[in-house]
Amino acid sequence: MSFVRLCLLFSLFVGIAGCGGGSPSGGTGGSNGDGGGGSSTAVTVTFQGTTPTAVAAKIGSGAFAAQTLSSGVVTLSLPSGTTNFAVAFVCSPVTILSGGTQIGQTSQESVIEESTLDGTSLTEACAVSPQPFQTGMLTGSVDASAIPAASFLTVNAQSGTSGTSYSSTTPVANFTLSAPAGSDRVEVLAFNSVSQSGGFSLVAAKSFSSQAVPGGLNGGSPVVLGSADETTEAPITYSGVPSGFSLPSTIVIYETAGGGAFLIASAATNQYPILPPGAIQSGDSYALEATARDSSQASQAVSSFISGGTGGPVSFTLPAPWSYAGPTPAALPTFDFDYTGFAGESGVSEVAGIGWSVGADSENFLTVTASTNYQNGATTLALPDLSGITGFLANPKSGSQAGWSALISQHSGTGQTATSNAVQNSGTYTVP
User: Fold this and answer.
1) Residue 133: helix, strand or coil by DSSP?
2) What are the tens digits of pLDDT across the range 219-245?
3) In a domain, 214, yes or no
4) For residue 88, what is the enclosing H or E element?
C-alpha cells in the first residue's frame, strides 16, 4: 500500500467520521459507574445518509454487543451512575474510481467513545460511493489566453451533490463533458502552475447558472476569460510556527451553495485567490487548511483549519507540536496521547487509526476517537477487537503492512465561524 495514499485516505475518513472513537474495554478513562439505583439516561445516535452495515455498542466498562437500527437510530440506556458509552459501526465499502472505472474499494470501521457530559444526542455519517446520475453532453469552447498567468483550465458542472469536470493542459480548449442532466451550475476556471513546487492556484473564473444539460455552454458562444474574470489575492498570516518546521502551506477549497466544491489553491503560502464577483453566488464559502511539517520528520505535522469564510484576510495560529514515534506494532495497537498543547480547551478529541491492504485492490481502515470527557485524564487509547461481531472487519493478518495515524484535534464554532487545530503523527509498521 502506498504510504502517501494511506495517509491521505485516513485523513479523509477522520474528517468524515467526525466524532468517531473507541477503546478495547472502556476502562481506561471516564466515570463508568456500576449501574446502581435511580433513573437511566437515554443516548441516541442518528446515522445520516447511507445506513451502516453493522452497529455495536457498549455501556460503561461492559463488552460490545450488536445493535439493531430503528429508522437509522440506535438508542442506548445508561444506568444511573454510568456516563461512558461507545458505538461502533461499519460502513458500506467506498468505490475508488479512475476515469469512471473501479480500481479498488475501501472499507471503514469507526468507533465513537463519548461521555454523557458531551451530550446525549449524536449524529454520524458514512462516506458513500459516487452515486450514478443521469447525464447529458455539455459542449463548448474556452479561451483564457488573455489571462497572462493562465496555463491550464477546468470546467466544472454541478447539480446538487452530483458533478463532473473537464480539464485541459492548455488555456484554450474545445470540450465535451458528460455532465448531470438538467439545470447545472457551471464554473469555468483558469489556473497557473508553479513548476518548482508542483502547486497551482486559480487566476480567473466565470460562472454560469441554470445551464441546460444537454446543451452548449454560454448558448454555444465561446467563453472568453478577461480582466473582469481575474481573481484577487487575500493575505494569509501565520503565528506559532514551531521551530524546525517548514513554512506553512495552505490548501484552499471553494464550496458552492447547494453542494459541490473545488480546489482553488494547492499550496498557498502568504496569499490565496478570491473569486471575482461574477463567479460568486450567495451561500458560497471558502475552506482553508494550513499545515506545517517537521523539516526532519515529514510525518509529524501541525495544522489549523478555517471553514465557512466568505473571502478575505485569514490568520492561522498553529498549535504546539507533538512528537510521537508510534505504537508498539500489533494487529490492534495501543496509542499514547501524552500531549498538553490543548490543556484546558473544550472540543478536544483523540483519534487513532490504522489502515491495511486486503488483496490487490482493497484497503480496510479502523479509526477510534475518544473525547476528553471519556478519557478523563487517561493518555492511552487502544483499538478494540470487534472481529467476533457479525459484520465487523477481520483483524489485520500477521506479516501485513499497516499504516498508522494519531491525531489530536481541538474544534470550536460551527458554520461561518468553525475553526480547528490539530497535531498529527503517522507511520507504518509490519503486523507481528
Assistant:
1) coil
2) 999 999 999 999 999 999 999 999 999
3) no
4) strand 84-90
Evaluate whether residue 244 is within a structural domain: no
Examine residue 251 and state whether it is found in any structural domain, yes or no.
no
What whole-number distance in Å separates Cα of residue 89 and Cα of residue 30?
Answer: 22
- Quote the strand ranges of 144-260, DSSP E: 152-159, 162-168, 172-180, 182-194, 199-213, 215-216, 223-224, 232-239, 249-255
Q: How many domains are contained in the chain? A: 1
> Residue 36, class by beta-carbon neighbours within 10 Å (0-12 exposed, 13-18 middle, 19+ buried)?
exposed
Model-level pTM? 0.84
Q: pLDDT tens, 115-157?
A: 999 999 999 988 766 677 899 999 999 999 999 999 999 999 9
Expressed as residue numbers, the domain containing 52 is 3-129+327-410
The C-alpha atoms of residue 77 and residue 44 are separated, in whole angstroms, by: 9
Residue in the structure block whose three cell numbers are 464559502 = 285
For strands 65-66 and 84-90, give the pairing. unpaired
Angle at 385 (CA atoms; ends 383, 391), nearest 5 degrees? 120
Q: Is position 109 within any domain?
A: yes
Return contacts of 191-198, CB within 8 angstroms, 24+ apart. 191/150, 191/151, 191/152, 191/153, 191/154, 192/149, 192/150, 192/151, 193/151, 193/152, 194/267, 197/267, 198/266, 198/267
The amino acid at 325 = A
